[in-house]
Design goal:
Length: about 150
């Protein structure tokens, strides 16, 4: 029997909060470079999970100060990492569109990430995780984790 895998969902929610806040500020103040910064943070965190800046803020500042409590649950980290990579890719496309002068497209892509991150943060539904598990069911290579069994 495989060992139970656990994920701290407070770290994920903190990550989502930073993404939502920073992309919203970028839109309100019209600062495309902030969109680029968020994209870089998300992509680096996808490639090197230990370097995820927003989750590091959670682990090294917010949690030790008692501002956010851990919420460790049975879960797989891979679907969340895939979701972050997908969000980082769309945020990078948003930044590139803004740089190229396709303002409406750039901000639409940023708002798509904001809305999906908000659904994850406030409703607990992760679009990227749903796509990951769908690809798993379809037998796509690299998508080898099945949803964890929920104990009743």
């Amino acid at each position: 029997m495989a060992a139970e895998r656990r994920v701290d969902h407070s770290a994920i929610r903190t990550n989502q909060s930073f993404i939502i806040a920073l992309l919203s500020v970028a839109f309100i103040l019209n600062v495309p470079l902030l969109v680029g910064f968020v994209a870089v943070v998300m992509i680096i965190g996808t490639v090197w999970p230990g370097a995820t800046l927003f989750m590091r803020v959670y682990r090294h500042i917010l949690r030790p100060l008692g501002l956010v409590r851990p919420d460790v649950v049975t879960d797989n980290p891979e679907p969340h990492r895939f979701a972050q990579g997908l969000g980082g890719s769309f945020t990078a496309l948003s930044f590139l569109a803004l740089l190229a002068g396709y303002t409406a497209l750039g901000w639409a892509l940023a708002w798509m990430v904001i809305v999906l991150a908000s659904l994850n943060l406030f409703a607990g539904w992760c679009a990227g995780c749903t796509i990951y598990y769908l690809l798993n069911r379809l037998g796509a290579p690299g998508f080898d984790r099945q949803p964890p069994k929920v104990s009743e």
